[in-house]
């Protein structure tokens, strides 16, 4: 099974990583107001849309 284990060396690699704060307004813009054209799929944890952020990065938005 792949994924992040709880071994100390795996956790240590995550230290110092920061994630950007993205406002709801930015998500609306990135997904064209959660347009059906950007719909990727849905499951038991919600719907996922394709979004293109202001810096050009493509992201899955949930």
Brief account:
The protein has helices at residues 8-14, 24-30, and strands at residues 39-43, 46-52, 58-61.
What would you note in describing this structure?
The chain is extended and about 40 Å long. It has helices at 8-14, 24-30, and strands at 39-43, 46-52, 58-61. The chain starts with 7 loop residues before the first helix and ends with a strand. The chain has 2 helices and 3 strands. The protein is α+β, with helices and mostly antiparallel strands and 62 residues long. It is an enzyme of class 2 (transferase). Keywords: ATP-binding, Kinase, Membrane, Nucleotide-binding, Serine/threonine-protein kinase, Transferase, Transmembrane, Transmembrane helix. Residues 34-62 form the Protein kinase domain. It is a single-pass membrane protein.
Outline the fold blueprint:
Elements: H1 8-14, H2 24-30, E1 39-43, E2 46-52, E3 58-61
Antiparallel strand pairs: 1-2, 2-3
> What structural category characterises the helix and strand content?
alpha+beta
CATH topology of one domain: Phosphorylase Kinase, domain 1
Mean model confidence by pLDDT: 89
Secondary-structure element string? HHEEE
The proportion of strand residues reads: 25-35%
Whole-number radius of gyration? 15 Å
- Give unreliable regions as ranges: none
Instruction: Tell me the overall shape.
Output: extended
The N- and C-terminal alpha carbons lie at a distance of 24 Å
Helical fraction equals 10-25%
CATH class of one domain: Alpha Beta
- Give the full name of the CATH homologous superfamily of one domain: Phosphorylase Kinase, domain 1
| Count, helices | 2
Q: How many E-type strands?
A: 3
Give the biggest beta sheet.
3 strands, antiparallel
- Sheet with the most strands: spatial strand order: 1-2-3
CATH architecture of one domain, by name, is 2-Layer Sandwich
């Amino acid at each position: 099974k792949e994924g992040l284990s709880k071994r100390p060396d795996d956790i240590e690699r995550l230290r110092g990583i920061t994630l950007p704060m993205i406002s709801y307004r930015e998500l609306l813009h990135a997904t064209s107001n959660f347009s059906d054209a950007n719909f990727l799929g849905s499951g038991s944890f919600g719907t996922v849309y394709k979004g293109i952020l202001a810096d050009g990065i493509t992201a899955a938005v949930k």
